[in-house]
Specification:
two-stranded antiparallel sheet, 4 strands, 1 helix, two-stranded antiparallel ribbon, mainly beta
Length: 71
Amino acid sequence: MNEPKEKTYKVLWGMCFATYYEVKASSEEEAIERSGYNYDSSEEWAIDTWEDDLVAENCHYAEITCEDEEE
C-alpha cells in the first residue's frame, strides 16, 4: 500500500508572553487604562515594563496554508 505523499505546510501560531506594566494610578481601572497599548514611558506615571514567560493557555494556531499545489 502506498503511503500518502507528504506536503509542505506553513503553520502560524499566535504566542502570548506575559507583559507586566508598573504604573502609578488612583484606581485599578486607571492602572488598566495606562497599561498595554496606552503605556507611555515618557509619562510621570509610567514606572517600568517587562516581559516574562509564555502564557501557554493563550497559544493556538491561527492559520495553516499548504505550500504544495494539490494534484
